[in-house]
Amino acid sequence: MTQIAPPPREVSPDDLAARKRPAGPAVRTLVSPLALASAKGRAVYWTVFTGVVLAFVLAFLFPVYWMVTGAMKSPDELVQTPPTLFPKSFSLGAYTDSWELMDLPTHLWNTVVQASGAWILQLVFCTAAAYALSKLKPAFGKVILGGILATLMVPAQALVVPKYLTVADLPLIHTSLLNDPLGIWLPAVANAFNLYLLKRFFDQIPRDVLEAAEIDGAGKLRTLWSILLPMSRPVLGVVSIFALVAVWQDFLWPLMVFSDTDKQPISVALVQLSQNISLSVLIAAMVIASIPMVLMFLVFQRHIIAGISAGSTKG
Predict the structure, then answer these.
(1) Domains plus CATH for the chain?
(2) Burial class of residue 90, CB neighbours in 10 A (0-12, 13-18, 19+)
(3) Taking the CA of residue 25 as centre, how many other CA atoms within 13 Å lie in the half-sphere pointing to its CB?
(4) Handedness of CA 217, 221, 223, 227 (dihedral sign)
(5) Which residue in 10, 46, 94, 123 could disulfide with 71, CB within 3.0 to 4.6 Å?
(6) pLDDT for 60-91, tens place per residue?
(7) Do residues 247 and 188 touch, judged by C-beta distance below 8 A?
(8) Which class for 290: exposed (0-12), middle (13-18), buried (19 or more C-beta within 10 A)?
């Protein structure tokens, strides 16, 4: 029995437009493409977008501007009401006075030494521990990791007294680490968050990469040094930023460790030396103390963004 084929259906303009559209998931946006196609829609969109961006810029940068210009004002102008938006006379004398009177070079150098040591030790020990827990699979590894992560649930203030007693009289060797950079470095090594961040990144690296290195004759340490570390540059950059900023802005622990004024970091020295200093000089010292962290962010901002996004991708 012969079947008669149905007549071909006429192709409508909508079908032709649908065929020309690229295949892919539909993207939902706050503003429809149809609204942006009109001149009025584009004008409203760019007006709102520009206003929001300017509002955010003003909210974040105005405090910085107020701090920088506040150091250029006289003490009387700083406390007058209503405050002045621009200094009546721009003067950099407060910056030079703070540099000399508060001995900022010494305290900045102390902070650099303390932050650098804590950063290097964290990279060495946290990376080694994360590699062991992630790839070497030691006995009771999950129990050890659970115990390390449990320390994140303990408030940092609750650990201050035990840490101080430990640093004041180090067990077994009975040595005091007070007024010593080791009193900052050693407690900073025990950073559960950075260790977990590195472990999660190592977990995403395919096992095939390590097996290929083993076939080529690479040992465990050579695999870590030549394979994993070059692949981990983004997350190592993020861990470095966290380690440096944590030590740079810490106040309570350095205050307890360093009773010697000449060995105190900048965060403690600003408070200890601010008793007989004018307000404009103190603000100038705060501006100088914040410059290294701002420069570090501007230089390594790409690495920070890359490291944050690296933790969300699968290997």
Answers:
(1) 33-94 (no CATH), 96-310 (1.10.3720.10)
(2) exposed
(3) 3
(4) negative
(5) 94
(6) 888 888 888 888 888 888 888 888 888 888 78
(7) yes
(8) middle
